[in-house]
Amino acid sequence: MTIDGDIARFDVIVVGAGFSGLYALHHLRELGLRVRVLEKAHTVGGTWLVNRYPGARCDIESIEYSYSFSEEIQQEWVWTETMSAQPEIEAYLNFVADRLDLRRDIDFETTVVAMSYSDEAAEWTVRTEDGATVAAPFVVAATGILSVPLEPSIPGMDRFTGTSLHTGRWPDGVVDLSGKRVGVVGTGSTGVQLIPVVAREAEHLTVFQRSPAYTLPWRVRTFEPGELDELKASYPQIRAAQREHPVGAARLSAFSVLLEMLAKPPLKTASAEERTKAVETDGIMGALNWGDLFFDIEANQMAAELYGQAVARIVDDPATARALTPSHPFACKRPIIDQGYYETFNRDNVTLVDLRADPIESVCPNGIQTAAGLHELDVIIYATGFDAMTGALNSIDVRGRGGASLREFWTEEGPLSYLGLAVAGFPNLFTIQGPGSPSAAANFVAAMEQNVEWIGACVSYLREHGFRTIEALPEAQQEWVDQATALVAATVLVHPSCSSWYNGGNVPGKKRMYMGYTAGIPEYRRRCDEIADAGYAGFKLA
Ligand code: FAD
Ligand code: N01
Questions:
Q1: Which class for 422: exposed (0-12), middle (13-18), buried (19 or more C-beta within 10 A)?
Q2: Residue pair 117/426 in contact by the 8 Å Cβ criterion
Q3: How confident is the model at residue 6 (pLDDT cuts 50, 70, 90)?
Q4: Dist. CA 185 → ligand 2 center (Å)
Q5: DSSP 149
Q6: For the chain, what is the mean pLDDT?
Q7: Atom in ligand 1 nearest the alpha carbon of residue 53
Q8: What CATH number matches the domain at 2-44+102-148+387-541, 3.20.20.240, 3.50.50.60, 3.30.70.20, 3.40.140.100?
Q9: Is the pLDDT of residue 482 over 90?
Q10: If you measure from the C-alpha of residue 44 to the centroid of ligand 1, how many angstroms do you get, rounded to a whole number?
């Protein structure tokens, strides 16, 4: 890459070197394209490089939450646990980068700050933080759906004299929490993973909880000797089953459990005895394992009550159990699984602060002040989530046709996109698993592989047929958004009390809109293929 003066030119610029960017580089390079990847971190990994917090792991079995495109890679790599922890996934992505010799085409420590499209040249010019520019007809934004950590704005945060950490940019190296008084703010997927591990290490843990989580107890285990080899021998069947499965993971995962719930009898018509028996027999699963919770808010509220009873069977202190019972609808946030979450609250060194009753007033130099008093702390860990789906692209000044700003468009109109792959007014820009894609409610890697392969085929088609540009048509985009919205219209996902990264409700001021596509990956793939086969229907090719 050159600084100022001459501009280096490529066929495709990929931004980001996580799961998506690495596969985009490999696949597009295999198609004979000159590809350059720009990555702000010092190495590969994306999500699995920065979320190094204790307890971080995936919640889909690793033999499915991994690349399927290379038989060599899936045979050579050794997973040690059913659902791998962060260090192993990070190591896997490094292995892939080396095995496919990807690093030679990646510029690390290179943050993209702006990119603008020239109509005349049919080309994107991409500017990085150090003032360098590169250009290419096509840009693939592999910038991540959960890559911009969200800091809460609590008065006094910068006055804290202890250590402040965000789980989404956890420092490299050991963070020693032993003998420390630690506070964790946030009880989403991250908090639920982090809290049991921190409790075992810290002198005292105080959990500041605004919305209690719904979380399914889960057993993650190391593979028995020979077990992984047997699975590897069945990879053709495993991958085939995944491909046909709506969530891109056919083995047991929180997503597959949720899908199975849809086929269960309704809670509304269950007798009092049946409800009690469900909780007595199956605990938390029994409270939630009913078919009408996604569509009927009253049934959902009844399930919340049963859930509270199930929690009370695990948590010794009744007041703590009550505080851990959610009041928002089940299923309107991403499903969570845990290992010993509720048991953690029976420990002598753990205190729960229910912010619904006792809100945070400020962060002080020596702790967190709530309405009821001061909690003295040495370390505060913010597990407060991400500006999801649009956050990463909105932190780049993306200028499309006529200088239009993507950030302004998405802020004013909402996160509109055609297939989650393209935005009208931004020709030749592909977004991997953007808003309106299945990624929010599916195995991301499976969903992403489809996107990368579709983009590869699209660029090849354009070149073979002498087209220089492809651009989503506004009416096709609106139709796609309408279809995605219609899919969830009858569900609790759009209930006013649902606030999550799925609908932008977790970011103050963000326009609310459900940002997923819930018909499943096979149906999404069918639609994408149909559109491509029709000469890219809904796109303007020029
Ligand atoms: P990322 O991994 O986020 O990578 C994006 C890359 O782009 C980053 O390296 C970033 O530095 C770079 N980048 C962004 N902006 C710029 C810029 N302006 N300039 C240069 N570089 C830039 N999904 C699942 O399906 N199953 C799971 O079990 C699962 N577990 C998760 C656990 C955690 C803790 C989190 C946060 C997410 C999890 N996800 C899971 C979602 C996860 O984000 C995806 O599965 C996947 O890792 C995303 O890969 P990606 O390459 O698209 O994005
Ligand atoms: O973020 P979240 P996350 N004061 O937004 C609270 C993936 N992931 O990092 O709900 C007090 O879910 C907030 O409270 P509320 C997965 O896709 C996967 O946990 O807004 N609290 C909430 O409790 C997941 O969905 C895994 O009331 C504040 C929490 O912080 C996504 O990443 C593991 C607050 C944020 O929860 C994000 O998960 C980890 C404030 N000012 C992550 N602001 C797997 O296991 C926010 N909160 C696969």
A1: buried
A2: yes
A3: confident
A4: 9
A5: B
A6: 97
A7: 34
A8: 3.50.50.60
A9: yes
A10: 11
